[in-house]
Amino acid sequence: MKVITLNKAIFSKKCSELFSKLDIEPDLVIGILNGGGYVMEEYRNYKPHTSAFFQTVAIKRNNNLKRNYIAIFLLKILPYNLLNMLRIYESEKADKSIKKLKDSNLMNIKLGISLDFLSNESIKNILIVDDAIDTGKTMLIVKNNLQKIFPKTKISTAVISWTIERSIVKPDYYLYENALIRFPWSIDYKGKDFEKKSFSS
User: Fold this and answer.
1) Total domains, the chain
2) Domain CATH for 140
3) pLDDT tens across 116-146, in order?
4) Is residue 193 part of a domain?
5) Which domain holds residue 91?
6) Global pTM?
7) Would you say 53 and 43 are in contact if contact means Cβ atoms under 8 Å apart?
8) What is the dihedral sign for C-alpha 104, 117, 52, 198?
9) Which residues are registered as beta bridge partners of 201?
10) How far is CA 137 from the centre of its chain?
């Protein structure tokens, strides 16, 4: 499996390539934080005159790395070839975890998505965007929650990278397959061309 590093300019270009594949006009675009928030913002720029609504959703993940300052320091000083090996190792672990995922349990997870301002009749197409699909767990949870709110709506998914082809959700639109992407907001990204932000819906 290859590891690809995208700087800010290339990320923006790749988002445009992804959006050019869309054959739908979404009425609602959902960005899964954090990476999906950046993809969602790129869609706003790609379609500046769209009448679509935009909303972000976050799923709490166990990521102790963000609080481990020693690990973060090491990620900043290690060369990319070693960091790539670590990414591949983590991806292999995620791949093995897929068979342990039970769809029935994931289908019962409820998210606090506040979309009361929208009517079911006005939303015909929903587009969920994220940076990548690994196991597919997050995408399944978000998609399932939206399907319950909008039972008659077509829901499509778009990601920059479909990392593991055995994932429990296959994206409708994607650029890379079986590739690990180091995005500009990744902890192990070494560029200085990106500023983290908070997202507005």
Assistant:
1) 1
2) 3.40.50.2020
3) 778 777 899 999 999 999 999 999 999 999 9
4) no
5) 2-182
6) 0.91
7) no
8) negative
9) none
10) 11
pLDDT by residue (tens digit) across 31-78? 999 999 999 999 999 999 999 999 999 987 665 555 677 777 788 888
Has residue 78 been placed in a domain?
yes
**Are the C-beta atoms of 52 and 26 separated by less than 8 Å?**
yes
In this structure, the number of other CB atoms found within 10 A of the CB of residue 189 comes to 20
- Cα–Cα distance for residue pair 145/153, rounded to 1 Å: 12
Which residues, in sequence order, are CB contacts of 87 under 8 Å at separation 6+? Answer: 3, 180, 182, 188
